[in-house]
Amino acid sequence: MEEINIDGKNLVLGRTASVVARHLLGGKNVNIVNAEKMIITGDPDEIIAKYIARRQRGSPQHGPFFPIKPDMLVKRTIRGMLPYKTNKGRNAFKNLKVYTGKPDKIKTETGETKKIKTRYITVEKLSLAIGWNKK
């Protein structure tokens, strides 16, 4: 099986998630490093308010359960672009690994990134705003 390693530094979360979902459905293994450095474009205050509303939905006992760790947030975003309730989607989702920071065992190539000309928030700052305790 082919393996794809992606460095998430300064990549837009939604665009990256759609590309990764396509690779996963194609039968490839995908590793994402530096998930906390991915960005979400838009007004940071509105983004934080939207994610806090998602966290408060439902009940703590019965869900829906929404993550606050950066790597799990990225993983949940990608899961939303997969048909995860089917066998095909669930098997594809198992081939995804997301890391905060950069593990030594994964080698990535840093490509060119476009300069962001709009307002944005990093996944790490978002996670801290919705309740993640960075150790």
Fold and architecture overview:
The chain has about 140 residues and is of the alpha/beta class. The protein has one domain (about 5-130): Ribosomal protein L13 (Ribosomal Protein L13p, Chain: A, Alpha-Beta Complex), CATH 3.90.1180. It has helices at about 15-25, 45-55, 70-80, 85-95, 125-130, and strands at about 5, 30-35, 40, 95-100, 120. A 3-stranded parallel β-sheet has the order 1-2-4. The longest helix has 13 residues, at about 15-25.
Give the overall average pLDDT. 92
- Poorly predicted tracts of residues: none
Number of helices: 5
| Beta strands, count | 5
What's the CATH architecture? Alpha-Beta Complex
Order of helices and strands: EHEEHHHEEH
Stated plainly, the CATH topology is called Ribosomal Protein L13p, Chain: A
User: What value does the Rg take, in angstroms?
Assistant: 15 Å
Major sheet characteristics: 3 strands, parallel
- State the shape: globular
N-end to C-end Cα span: 35 Å
Structural class: alpha/beta
| Proportion of residues in extended strands | 5-15%
Strand order, biggest sheet? 1-2-4
Q: What is the CATH superfamily classification?
A: Ribosomal protein L13
What percentage of residues falls in helices of 4 or more residues?
Answer: 25-40%
> What is the CATH top level name?
Alpha Beta
